[in-house]
Design brief:
serine protease; single chain; 469 residues; periplasm; signal; repeat; seven-stranded antiparallel sheet; Pdz3 Domain; alpha+beta; Thrombin, subunit H; 12 helices; 27 strands
């Protein structure tokens, strides 16, 4: 009899537990649906048009008409793109609705349109952009009643510093143009470093992120934006990255205040502190200074090669990303206290930061080489011997010039040494292309090159190309 009673009680408890679990799951699902319904109206789709100059491989041949190419050496081709964005604020004085998106979504676009959840499509303008963080602020004017709509659907920005690995996150965007698409996953890792983005620690998530998701929000279970979906790794599954919203807020505030992002540097070349180096220097963590730039603020302040930087303004430095963030996010001209360990002693050194300037990445350098038809290389001892280069204190070696390119038209030849650009000596290929990039940004028509050719020295003028010619 007792056994029957126990079986009855156990069965009842099982039924109760299953019923309770089912009810709880329905409640969780309902809350998730409400969350998405509340956030989705604040997410928009971004449509862009770019005009890209293309080289006609069939110019001067009868094949151009067959393949539909105009009979010109170069022609302009229209390219369409799309991404996502979300509403962050409205300005009633300027009558603008502001949205956050990715820089790569709107970069080089000649026309940008935003389609909101209520199907209103309005042309947007770029307020400011930042390549390093891959963020941009765009705005649409008060048209078609969008101001009232936007005021109701401004997304709440959370605190990404409170994120923990394993937390549930939801990505909303327009992958492949499918607006309002929702995917869910977890935070896989925090503070991930991505090549080409120094000082920017990204959120890694397994929430599905596809082309078109870029610029859309990554939200937590409170409906707060904790990140901006920005990147996927081609060929990988479950690997997506987002800019932490705290970083995005800082970038956005800089753009709204200055029209651009102001970052700092102190003029050091650094390297990770490997276990072997840590043992040698007798420290547990920090960043090793391998070189101090001449005439830079670090040099003037007394920082030396071989110093281990362990803190900035009292905040610990564990790796390169820590140091870059702690230095770069100060306005130029800020005095920071850099704590180093030198010969076992801890020393505090006050350093005044200077403006950080974006350098040309390897990928961008290849793009510039193709654009100008010019390959330049740093001069190494091996090259001096191989190409019999005369001894010079600075310059870059012209490794190749493409026939018909602007470099060819400027009279440059393989084997030349470019000594200076606009009378400024150049010491590396990276520095050379940075000067050219600055000339492009300043809308310069040409730059003056001082070139050594054999035992002779000549001047020549290199035309500056606008956009992606």
């Amino acid at each position: 009899m007792l056994k029957k009673h126990l079986i009855l009680i156990f069965t009842s408890l099982m039924i109760f537990n299953i019923s309770f679990a089912s009810t709880l799951m329905r409640q969780i699902e309902e809350e998730r649906i409400k969350l998405v319904e509340n956030v989705s109206p604040g997410v928009a789709t971004v449509f862009t048009i770019r005009e890209v100059k293309m080289v006609n491989p069939f110019a001067g041949t009868p094949f151009g008409d067959f393949f539909g190419f105009p009979d010109e050496r170069e022609f302009t081709q229209r390219q369409e793109g799309l991404g996502s964005a979300f509403i962050v604020k409205i300005d009633k004085k300027k009558k603008l609705v502001y949205l956050l998106t990715n820089n790569h979504v709107i970069e080089n676009a000649t026309n940008i349109k935003v389609r909101f959840k209520n199907n209103k499509v309005i042309e947007a303008k770029v307020i400011g952009k930042d390549k390093l963080s891959d963020l941009a602020v765009i705005a649409v004017p008060f048209k078609k009643g969008i101001d009232k709509y936007a005021e109701k659907h401004i997304l709440k920005l959370g605190d990404s510093d409170k994120l923990r690995v394993g937390a549930t996150v939801i990505a909303i965007g327009s992958p492949l143009g499918l607006s309002g698409t929702v995917t869910m996953g977890i935070v896989s890792a925090l503070d991930r470093a991505i090549e080409g983005h120094p000082g920017e620690g990204f959120i890694q998530t397994d929430a599905a992120i596809n082309p078109g998701n870029s610029g859309g929000p990554l939200i937590n279970l409170e409906g707060e934006v904790v990140g901006i979906n920005t990147a996927i790794i081609a060929g990988a599954q479950g690997l997506g990255f987002a800019v932490p919203i705290n970083q995005a807020k800082w970038v956005m505030n800089q753009i709204l205040k200055y029209g651009k992002v102001k970052r700092s540097k102190i003029g050091v070349i650094i390297q990770p502190l490997t276990p072997e180096l840590a043992e040698h220097f007798g420290v547990d963590k920090g960043v090793l200074v391998s070189q101090v730039m001449e005439d830079g603020p670090a040099k003037k302040a007394g920082i030396k090669s071989g110093d281990i930087i362990v803190a900035v303004n009292g905040k610990e430095v564990e790796d390169i990303n820590d140091l870059q963030k702690l230095i770069m996010r100060n306005p130029p001209g800020t005095e920071v206290t850099v704590t180093v360990i030198r010969n076992g002693r801890k020393i505090d050194i006050k350093v005044k930061t200077v403006p950080w300037e974006e350098t040309v990445s390897v990928e961008n350098m290849e793009e510039m080489e193709a654009k100008y038809g010019l390959i330049v290389q740093d001069i190494t001892p091996e090259m001096v011997e191989k190409y019999r280069i005369p001894k010079i204190p600075y310059g870059v070696f012209v490794y190749g010039v493409k026939y018909g390119s602007v470099a060819d038209e400027a009279g440059l030849r393989s084997g030349d040494i470019i000594l200076s650009v606009n009378r400024k000596p150049v010491k590396s290929a990276n520095e050379f292309w940075n000067i050219i990039k600055k000339a492009e940004a300043a809308d310069k028509e040409t730059v003056l090159l001082f070139v050594q050719r054999g035992n002779s020295k000549i001047y020549t003028v290199l035309p500056i190309l606008k956009g992606k010619d």
